[in-house]
């Protein structure tokens, strides 16, 4: 098994406590950061490590930090732990099992960005994760890792845990800030980007939970060490959340650039397709990313290769679909999610996701018409890029890619009024 | 009625954030804990503690699905029906619950014991299908587990409730999904 970075000690007993975390090198990264580096040196170090955001867009973390507007307004940091992308379950694991690792990362990033108030926005449904992080924050305050004059330095920081309350949209960074400010989670128009005008109008850095939890190891071991894992442009490791039709679903940390095939079929990881069926399709980065056909199974899991194959690495949620799945049924289910989670602010997304669901519903239930397939493509075209945030775009990914890959299944539905292959939902609960 | 202690916690929260308004969401949670759902009293208390209008607070409370607009059941059951759980047979779990509880998704049983909902991805796709009972995860759910859970709740809630649940299956209220 290759070296693990983020999940190295994840199953160590007591890791969720301050004492247990310290036994595994906890807060050594923070101590080193504060004692040996100036904030701008840390930004450079993280740039050199090549670390890229683990939330979805994969933006280089150090670069993001360096974009913070240099003015006299108060700066803020938000940790985005509003994990709700279908197929993604890594941040929940980090928060439940190693909350101090996240807190340490938050402090390091805040120090690097000259932030004096940081927020950790934890998804409302993840009650245990929220409690774990809250306790870790309290312990860190008591130990002098958060608060005034951290570790004897002149750096002070306040960390506030903020719980969401059931809204996927708040994982979008501008909606997250609205929510933190005590409003409905409606996305803001960009630009200005958060780095210029963010929370309470101040320059704001927003990083994903896993991104921040990776920082302590990078500081402890150095940028070059981190960059020695993965590929040249996609450095390091990341947690791939493997779900769907595999024998052993779960979180597996692998160097970027590992082929999809290894993740799905290797005995150490997915262990092959459920019931030894044939692979039909892969969604490589959460349900918002384009579906890939089985022929792409040898694609390396790094940002560039997955993009070249026609999709995105997204949140690292790899969803595996086998041969007995009706693609129209699966796409309908994914589309219902976006219809339900559209915040309602922008008309193309609010109305479009509704219409997509309606059309898919009639196709799936044998009432589709020949022109419905092109109609779906047309609605997608009218949503994509026409709203404030990417939720509407995300809703179209599975539809356009599945029509491209599996058009004959849609046509079969129109012609025969039923599924060409069995339904995913018909799989017996095992 | 919202207790004075709860109101004080809300005021403390308002002081903790850089801007008081940010305390709306945690304050709503405190109010819901006391009242069971977001009542008019709850809105009023939050508005007073933070210094906003009731309408303002309500606009936030109605956006987020975890603030209940009506009294939920003693057991709030949320079954995830997103793609990863769908691929692992969550629809059969939903059907089985509906049969066992005698209510449809989105409904609360007449005896006020159960609210049954379907929900979006719960970040537990590696152990699909998955559900939550009052925020506690139950993973790798099978139909046998559904039976065992329902039996356990029935015992817990008491024989009187069991008799009621069997007789009276008409839904009382609809919870907004």
Describe this structure in words.
The complex is a heterodimer of chains A (430) and B (177). Chain A is α/β, with parallel strands linked by helices. Chain A has three domains: 18-227, 3-Layer(aba) Sandwich (Rossmann fold); 237-322, Roll (Ubiquitin-like (UB roll)); 327-426, Up-down Bundle (de novo design (two linked rop proteins)). Helices cover 42% and strands 12% of the residues of chain A. Chain A has a five-stranded mixed beta sheet, covered by helices on one side. A four-stranded parallel beta sheet of chain A has the order 3-2-1-4, sandwiched between helices. In chain A, helix 5 packs across helix 6, helix 5 packs across helix 7 (127-142) and helix 13 runs antiparallel to helix 14. Chain B is of the alpha+beta class. Helix content of chain B is 48%, strand content 12%. Chains A and B meet through strand 3, strand 5, strand 9 and helix 13 of A and helix 2, helix 5 and helix 6 of B.
Q: So what's the oligomer here?
A: heterodimer
Q: Based on DSSP secondary structure assignment, what is the total number of beta strands of chain A?
A: 9
What number is the mean pLDDT of chain B? 92
Estimate what percentage of residues of chain A fall within beta strands.
5-15%
Brief rundown of the structure:
Chain A folds into 3 domains: 18-227, Rossmann fold; 237-322, Ubiquitin-like (UB roll), CATH 3.10.20.600; 327-426, de novo design (two linked rop proteins).
Throw out a few tags for this protein.
A: 430 residues, alpha/beta, Rossmann fold, Ubiquitin-like (UB roll), de novo design (two linked rop proteins), 3 domains, 5-stranded mixed beta sheet, 4-stranded parallel beta sheet, 16 helices, 42% helix, 12% strand, B: 177 residues, alpha+beta, Arc Repressor Mutant, subunit A, Glutaredoxin, 6 strands, 48% helix, elongated
């Amino acid at each position: 098994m290759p070296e693990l970075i983020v999940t190295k000690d994840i199953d160590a007993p007591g890791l969720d406590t301050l004492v247990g975390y310290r036994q595994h090198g906890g807060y050594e990264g923070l101590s080193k950061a504060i004692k040996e580096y100036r904030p701008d040196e840390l930004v450079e170090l993280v740039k050199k490590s090549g670390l890229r955001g683990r939330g979805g867009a994969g933006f280089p973390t150090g670069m993001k930090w360096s974009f913070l507007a240099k003015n006299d307004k108060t700066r803020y940091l938000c940790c985005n732990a509003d994990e709700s992308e279908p197929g993604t379950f890594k941040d929940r694991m980090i928060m439940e099992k190693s909350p101090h690792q996240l807190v340490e990362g938050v402090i390091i990033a805040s120090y690097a960005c000259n932030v004096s108030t940081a927020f950790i926005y934890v998804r409302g449904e993840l009650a245990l994760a929220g409690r774990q992080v809250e306790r870790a924050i309290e312990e860190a305050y008591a130990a002098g890792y958060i608060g005034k004059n951290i570790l004897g330095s002149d750096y002070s920081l306040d960390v506030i845990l903020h719980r969401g309350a059931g809204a996927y949209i708040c994982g979008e960074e501008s909606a997250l800030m609205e929510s933190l400010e005590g409003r409905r989670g409606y996305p803001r128009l960009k630009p200005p980007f958060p780095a210029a005008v963010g929370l309470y109008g101040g320059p704001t850095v927003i990083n994903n939970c896993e991104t921040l939890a990776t920082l302590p190891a990078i500081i402890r071991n150095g940028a070059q060490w981190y960059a020695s894992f993965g590929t040249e442009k996609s450095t390091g490791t990341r947690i791939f959340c493997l779900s769907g039709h595999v024998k052993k679903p779960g979180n597996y940390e692998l160097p970027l650039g590992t082929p999809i095939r290894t993740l799905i079929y290797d005995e150490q990881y997915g262990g092959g397709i459920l019931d030894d069926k044939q692979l039909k399709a892969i969604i490589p980065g959460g349900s918002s990313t384009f579906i890939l056909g089985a022929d792409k199974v040898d694609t390396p899991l790094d940002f560039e290769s997955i993009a070249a194959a026609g999709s995105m690495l997204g949140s690292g949620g790899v969803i595996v679909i086998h041969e007995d799945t009706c693609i129209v049924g699966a796409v309908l289910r994914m589309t219902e999610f976006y219809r339900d989670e559209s915040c309602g602010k922008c008309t193309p997304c609010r109305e479009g996701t509704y219409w997509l669901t309606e059309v898919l519903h009639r196709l799936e239930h044998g009432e589709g018409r020949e022109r419905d397939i092109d109609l779906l493509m047309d609605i997608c075209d009218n949503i994509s890029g026409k709203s404030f945030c990417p939720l509407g775009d995300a809703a179209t990914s599975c539809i356009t890619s599945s029509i491209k890959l599996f058009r004959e299944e849609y046509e079969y539905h129109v012609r025969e009024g039923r599924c060409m292959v069995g339904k995913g939902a018909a799989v017996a609960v095992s | 009625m919202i207790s004075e202690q709860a109101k004080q916690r809300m005021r403390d929260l308002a002081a903790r954030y850089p801007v008081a308004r940010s305390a709306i969401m945690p304050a709503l949670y405190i109010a819901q804990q006391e009242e069971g759902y977001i009542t008019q009293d709850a809105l009023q208390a939050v508005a007073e503690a933070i210094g906003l209008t009731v309408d303002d607070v309500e606009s936030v409370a109605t956006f987020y699905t975890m603030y209940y607009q009506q009294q939920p059941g003693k057991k709030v059951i949320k079954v995830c029906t997103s793609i990863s759980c769908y691929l692992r047979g969550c629809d059969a779990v939903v059907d089985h619950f509906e049969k066992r509880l005698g209510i449809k998704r989105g409904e609360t049983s007449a005896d006020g014991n159960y609210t049954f909902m379907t929900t979006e991805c719960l970040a537990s796709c590696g152990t699909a299908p998955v559900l939550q009972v009052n925020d506690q995860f139950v993973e790798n759910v099978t139909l046998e587990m559904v039976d065992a859970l329902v039996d356990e709740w029935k015992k817990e809630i008491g024989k009187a409730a069991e008799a009621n649940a069997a007789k009276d299956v008409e839904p009382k209220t609809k919870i907004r999904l």
